[in-house]
Specification:
Layout (H helix, E strand, L loop, with lengths): L4 H18 L4 E6 L4 E6 L7 H15 L3 H8 L3 H10 L10 E6 L2 E9 L3 H14 L9 H6 L5
Antiparallel strand pairs: 1-2, 1-4, 3-4
Helix pairs in contact: 1-5
Amino acid sequence: MSFGMKQARALVDAGIHAAEEKGYQVTVTVVDGSGNFMWAGRMDGTKFVAPDIARAKAYTAAAFRQSTAVLEEKANPKPVFYTGVQVVHDGRIAIGQGGLPIWVGDEVVGGIGVSGAAPQEDEEVAAAALAVEGYTVPAADVATRAAMGHSR
C-alpha cells in the first residue's frame, strides 16, 4: 500500500465524517513519515487553536512512532526531559491523546492528529479514520511491535 496525498486526504475525510457522526467539532491533520504537512480539514466552529494542535499531534505520533497517549504516560514521570524535547522541536511536539502513527507494514509513513474535542474523543476520531481507511490501529508502543518481530 502506498501512502501519498490521496491517502492523506481520505484519512482526513474519514476523520471528519467520524467526528460529525459523534457530534464533535475537530480539526484532522495528516503528516508524512518525516512530519511534513500533507492534508488537513477543519470543521466549522472548531476552536482556532485546533489546527495547530492537530498538526503537532500528528507530527509527534510520526516522530515517536507511537500514540501521543502512550507518550503522555511516558512523559508524566519525566516532565523536565519532555519539556526540553518540546523546546528543541520548536513547539511542534504535542503530548496528549489524539495523535496516532500511520503504519504500512513495518514502516511509519505518517501521523494523524485530531484536536477540538475531549482528548479521548480526539483519539477515537483518529482511530476511526485509520480503521475506515484500512490501516491497522497501532500497538500501544513501538517496543511492543519490536517484541513481535517488527523492525519498527
